[in-house]
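Kindly inspect this one:
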Amino acid sequence: MQIEINGEAERMVQQVMDSGRFDSPGEVVEAAMTALPDFNLPGRPLARARLEAMIRLQGVKPLKDGTELHADFWPEDETADDINAFVRELRCAARG
């Protein structure tokens, strides 16, 4: 069986395939269909079901420790005020 999908869906399937978690586009679609039966969740059921499907497809796991978020991209001698000023400058420059 063959189905037509739009370019965005094709890119999403390819991205999941590139992760190495699935051997075929059919496996990706099967995993997505398995992940989508939870439409009766409270709140925004469709949005939540899509989010949960993406989490399952991408293999995202909960954080075990907040230190997993630690990144060494900012010099230790600069303060939070320095970071905030830097972000403010970037935003002002982006606005033109």
In short: The chain has a mean pLDDT of 78.
